[in-house]
Amino acid sequence: MATIPKKPKKPYPDYPLFAHATKRWAKKIKGKLYYFGPWDNSTAALQKYLHQRDDLQAGLVPRLTPGLTPDGVTLRDLANRFLTLKKSRLDGGELSVRMFNDYRRICERLLTEFGKDRLLTDLRSEDFDKLRANFSKGVGPVTVMNLVRLTKIFIKFAYDSDLIDRPIKVGPGFKGPSAKTLRADRQSKRPRMFEAAEIRRILETAPSHLRAMIFLGINCGFGQSDCSSLPVSAIDLDGSWITYPRPKTAVMRRCPLWSETVDALRQCVATRREPKDSANAGRLFITKQGAAYVRATENGTNVDGIGQEFLKLLKRLDMHGGRRNFYALRHGFETIGGNARDQIAVSSIMGHAPSSSDMSAVYRERIDDERLKAVTGHVHKWLFPVG
Question: Is the pTM higher than 0.85?
Fold first, then answer.
C-alpha cells in the first residue's frame, strides 16, 4: 500500500500558499486551484505566485517568465499563451473562426498526447515520432500534412515568444507526407468535380436558395464560405456582376453573372430572411433560424449548413460518395474555365492569392471585363451546350 507523503509546514505563518497533496504549493484564486511549484522550493513557488497573482485575480492568462517558474513552462502554459494571441487576432478580424478552431483543436490534441503538465524542455524528437505515427491512424495524407503543419506552428511559438531559450527539436521524421504520396492519394480517388449533365440535374431539383448558391459555385467558383458571407451590396443584378473580396484571402475579385444566376439571385433577394444577429445584417443568405449558413458555435464546432443541404440533395439524387461535395463546383469552374486559355482571368475570378514572387501580379492593376466574360462564357457553353 502506497504511503501518503507528509505535507510540509508553511515556511512562515503568513506564507500565502498551501501544501497540496500533489507535492506542490498551491492557492485557490477566484474559485480555481493554481499550482506554483514543488514543495522543496517554496521560495521559487512564492516568486511565481507573486509574479502571476494580479493577472490571475483579474481573470487573465498569467504572464510567463521562465526564470520565475520553478516547474518550467508547460504545454498548458504554451497553449494558454498561444490561444490568447490567436483569439485577439480573431476578435480583430485578422483570423477566421475556422482557423481559430483548427488551432484550438491542435492544442487540445497535443495536451492529450503529451500531457498538460509536460515541460516544453522535456519534449524530445522521439515524442514527435510517436505523435506523427498517431496522426496517420485512420486519416488520409492531406489531413496528416495539416496536422503536422499546425503542430509546428504551435511548437515554434514557444521559442519565438521567449518562453524557452532554445527551439524545440521535433526531429527529421516529423514532417508531412511526400509530394509523391499526396499525388498518389489524389490519383486514387474519383475526380472532384461534377460533369455538366450532373450539375443540370442538381439545379433542377435544388430549392431556390441552394440553387442560387450552386450557380455561384459553377459561375463564379464560390465555395461555402464565399456564399455564406456574400453581402447584398456586392451584387449588381442590373449589370450582372459580383464584385467581392474572397473571405479566405481578401483578394478582390470581379465575376460576370449568367442570366440564370441573376434570376436565381433576384429570387433570393426578394425572399431574403432577416438575421437574428446584427453582425449578419448585410448577408444575402440567412438560414431559417436567422443565422449564417457557415459559422462556429460557442463550443467551437464548425457548422456548414450549405454543405449539409447540398449533401442531402446529392443523396436524394443518388449522386453522393467520394470527394464530391459543394466545393467540387469550385473545382469544376477551375477545370473548365482553364480551357478558355486565360489562367490569369480564371485565378482572378477564383480569388487566388498570387505567390509573393509573382511580380506580374504586383504590377497588374486590373483585368479587362471581356477577359473575365470569356472565361465564364466558356463555362456556360460547357454547362448549357446549344443544340
Answer: no
